Amino acid sequence: MPAGTGLKDATAIVGIGQTPFARHLPEDERTLACRAVIAALDDAGIAPGEVDALASYTMEETDEVELAKAVGFGDLTFFSKIGFGGGGSCATVAHLASAIACGQATVGVAWRSRKRGSGPRPWTNTAVQLPTPAQWTRPFGLLRPADEIAMLARRWLHEYGATRDHLFNVALACRNRANQNPAAVMYERPLTREMYMSSRWISEPLCLYDNCLETDGALACVVVSAERARDCRRRPVYVHSAAQGLPAQHHGMVNYWNDDPLTGPAWTAARHLWKHADFTPPDVDVAQIYDAFTPLVPLSLEGYGFCARGEGGAFTEGGALETGGRLPLNTGGGGLSEAYVHGFNLINEGVKQLRGTSTAQVPGAATCLVTAGEGVPTSALLLRN
Amino acid sequence: MLTPVTDSDGAPFWRYAARGELRVQACGACGEPRFPPRPCCPHCRSFASEWRLMSGQGRIWSWVVPHPPLLPDYAALAPYNVILVELAEAPRIRLVGNLVSAPGAALDSFPPDRIRIGARVRAVFTGDGLVQWVLERP
């Protein structure tokens, strides 16, 4: 692999797996992780003993040792855990792709298992020493990720004249797709503008429907070389481009001390992502954009270059994010309406689209952007079939 | 209520605040202010630092109004405001705080519907060393 050509189509996702998603599942995170990983390997037609690489992200309770012992992996030669929670989702695939492309491993599994629906909310844990930025925010009652993102959202709404209707457009597109997806927590539960506008506040200007679901569930995917992928059971979905992004002077979820807090990590990841791609934003057929909170979508649309800065709200108008629109969004329902499993469901949904098996299939979809959490050091993938 | 769990870099900020002074860390070599505090200057890599006295004047950059579910002490005050203030002398330094009706007043003492982005505010200090903000022209 000549230096500088990057990872372009050198590896592919050949298996995906998931557990049911629900507010409460009886099994523990480790068991759910095993189920998702075994399902992904079955989907790929690859034996667990062939797995030699693992990747997940921080806040994952099931560690590599436990997974390897339970599922019966072979000798592992690569394992990686990406920092900053939800910003790590796409980087799991990126790390495996890098390891496989340069010969450190041959079969990689990425996974995420979470019991956020029935377990405690991370922000309520005040017993441990908080990371450095917390001393500057939490005593004043800025306690939760929702509060931190709401602060950016208020400024963004103010600076660009965007409205709550723009945020509703995001929530609605995700809910409409979840209504087509029997696996989604919000299947057959439609959302209306009236429900949105009259719902309770969580952190003004964000209301209930601007926030992701609290979900139990696990997902996994399998990455191999493009050469190996040709012999697998499923149509390969190639990792066309991958990037992480941690901007200069960034400060975690609270980006307020950056020179320009409205250009978050998405902007950094995007520059690298597109530099190594054969296509550009208008060529993306379908997008899976991390949606822990609705404002992350317009901010990401700006960061990944689908529109100019400040135009992310206007971009959502006229059904642009719906099926048949300019950029169909989060076609499984996303974190807002399918399940919030730290964004891993967005990766698997991207694979389903490019296999042609999504419950909200975009006809002929050949390219997909998947992103991880914006606002935190992040990551993104361009997938193609 | 949560009290600041300081680290060694941040501790001077809170010591000055307990004396009623708003000071931010600045480089002892090139003079650039920086926030949050950290061991060395990202501009010139000097490990020398000073704590520069600020006027306490600033403007509201953004604000939110949290509602439950919240930690119990905060839920009891909700809805309350949290503001982000850009300092007059160093606009890129933004401090999270609360807009209150008077020094020492509770987080919910100022009506949220009167908060505006760009409003001029001034730092005041509680007896236990927290920085609060009041409107410059109430």
UniProtKB/TrEMBL annotation, chain A:
<protein>
    <submittedName>
        <fullName>Lipid-transfer protein</fullName>
    </submittedName>
</protein>
<dbReference type="InterPro" id="IPR002155">
    <property type="entry name" value="Thiolase"/>
</dbReference>
<dbReference type="Pfam" id="PF22691">
    <property type="entry name" value="Thiolase_C_1"/>
</dbReference>
<feature type="domain" description="Thiolase C-terminal">
    <location>
        <begin position="259"/>
        <end position="377"/>
    </location>
</feature>
<dbReference type="InterPro" id="IPR016039">
    <property type="entry name" value="Thiolase-like"/>
</dbReference>
<dbReference type="InterPro" id="IPR055140">
    <property type="entry name" value="Thiolase_C_2"/>
</dbReference>
UniProtKB/TrEMBL annotation, chain B:
<dbReference type="InterPro" id="IPR002878">
    <property type="entry name" value="ChsH2_C"/>
</dbReference>
<dbReference type="InterPro" id="IPR052513">
    <property type="entry name" value="Thioester_dehydratase-like"/>
</dbReference>
<protein>
    <recommendedName>
        <fullName>OB-fold domain-containing protein</fullName>
    </recommendedName>
</protein>
<dbReference type="InterPro" id="IPR022002">
    <property type="entry name" value="ChsH2_Znr"/>
</dbReference>
<dbReference type="Pfam" id="PF12172">
    <property type="entry name" value="zf-ChsH2"/>
</dbReference>
<feature type="domain" description="ChsH2 C-terminal OB-fold">
    <location>
        <begin position="51"/>
        <end position="126"/>
    </location>
</feature>
<dbReference type="InterPro" id="IPR012340">
    <property type="entry name" value="NA-bd_OB-fold"/>
</dbReference>
<dbReference type="Pfam" id="PF01796">
    <property type="entry name" value="OB_ChsH2_C"/>
</dbReference>
<feature type="domain" description="ChsH2 rubredoxin-like zinc ribbon">
    <location>
        <begin position="14"/>
        <end position="48"/>
    </location>
</feature>
